[in-house]
From TrEMBL:
Residues 315-327 have a biased composition (Low complexity). Residues 129-305 form the Novel STAND NTPase domain. It comes from the Bacteria. InterPro entries: nSTAND1 (IPR049052), P-loop_NTPase (IPR027417). Residues 301-377 are annotated as: Disordered. This is Novel STAND NTPase 1 domain-containing protein.
Length: 377
């Protein structure tokens, strides 16, 4: 049994819950509703259908170039759910209920599948613009994107020369790439040399074998090797002393999960107190640059919205929020405004008491009554 509830409030869920007894569950049942039980389906002004019905019709008619060969109930729900979140402001999300294997029931062939496959094939002579899991090297400085501000801050800290700088971040956060393709070229542009090392099993020997000019910056990457590769504390402590007492600038890069190990050594504890440089994840704008710019450099483009994160729902305005002059405050008119601002609430969000006009009262902004603004498919 499949129920499509395209109109008002997803109240078919009550009926499905009553019908789907044990026998029905074994056979499989599925509910796909435009909205939740306490919400209304919304239609864009001037459109003959709600966004849910229109989106479902468009999916079955035009297909999804990024989808599988066959449109299943689950794919239809996922496609509509993502479309609702990408709207600005976000629309009420569709609801689903599945029992048994109903999720995999095929609705129709995907008309856009072959088109998507053809579009997905890049020209044979275009190189892959992404490095994958390999860290950047100093030679990759021109392709090291998304960390310009972080590189500048770290370079200034190191150039200040006020003791060891400890770059600390989660595994895979990009510490090695930041040191190689960010800090190293930035220091060399200032005329400062860089010498790199990893501790290994014999860190003091590695230190002694380094050929380092007096004014060069020593970068110790993967400092956690002091605890993973070196199992002799009599070897560790002299190396910690060398690092902490060095007259030349020193930069350490250590995984965040080895923070407690460092705290066991007073010199490292002091370095973490005065020279800690936390490396967090990329921000949204930085992520977008990391995704879009490498593709653009080799002449490739991204499907619209692929590098855009789903927007968050805006919070309802307070009861004392005033609507700017010339802007309609009813929820229907607010659904067409982008972005949502004072007095305009997102469809499907609750408003404070008395924030909406009664059903029989015309909207002060558009003159229509609320019952005329609620549209079914």
């Amino acid at each position: 049994m499949v129920v499509l509830d395209c109109c008002h409030a997803g109240r078919a869920g009550n009926a499905v819950a009553a019908v789907t007894a044990e026998a029905a569950r074994s056979a499989g049942s599925y509910l796909l509703a435009a909205v939740g039980g306490s919400e209304r389906a919304w239609a864009p002004p001037g459109e003959p259908r709600t966004w849910f019905t229109g989106g479902l019709v468009a999916l079955l008619r035009d297909g999804d170039p990024t989808g599988p060969p066959w449109i299943t109930l689950h794919h239809a729900w996922r496609h509509l759910d993502r479309a609702a979140q990408l709207c600005s402001p976000p629309l009420p999300r569709p609801r689903r209920f599945a029992a048994g294997n109903a999720d995999g029931l095929v609705l129709a062939p995907n008309p856009g599948y072959e088109r998507g496959q053809a579009e997905a094939e890049p020209p044979a002579d275009v190189p892959c613009p992404y490095r994958g899991l390999e860290p950047f090297t100093p030679d990759d400085a021109a392709d090291f994107l998304g960390r310009a501000d972080t590189t500048g801050e770290l370079t200034d800290r190191v150039a200040a020369g006020s003791g060891p700088v400890v770059v600390i971040g989660a595994s895979g956060s990009g510490k090695t790439s930041l040191l190689n393709a960010g800090l190293d070229p930035a220091l060399r542009e200032r005329g400062v040399g860089v010498v790199r090392m990893t501790p290994g099993a014999r860190p003091t020997e590695t230190w002694a074998d380094l050929e380092r000019p007096d004014d060069a910056v020593l970068v110790v990457d993967q400092f956690e090797e002091l605890f993973t590769a070196c199992d002799d504390d009599a070897e560790r402590r002299p190396f910690v002393d060398l690092v902490s007492e060095s007259t030349a600038p020193v930069v350490l890069a250590v995984r965040a999960d080895f923070y407690p190990h460092c705290l066991a050594y007073p010199a490292l504890r002091q370095a973490l107190t005065t020279g800690q440089f936390p490396l967090g994840p990329l921000g949204l704008d930085e992520l977008r640059q990391v995704i879009e710019e490498p593709a653009a450099r080799v002449g490739l483009g991204l499907e619209a919205g692929r590098s855009r994160p789903p927007p968050r729902r805006s919070t309802p305005p307070s009861a004392t929020t005033r609507t700017p002059r010339g802007r309609c405050s009813c929820a229907w008119c607010a659904s067409a405004s982008t972005p949502t601002t004072h007095g305009a609430r997102s469809p499907g969000t609750r408003s404070p008491p008395d924030a909406n006009p009664p059903k029989s009262r015309p909207c002060a902004g558009c003159g229509t009554r609320s019952r005329d603004r609620t549209r079914a498919s």
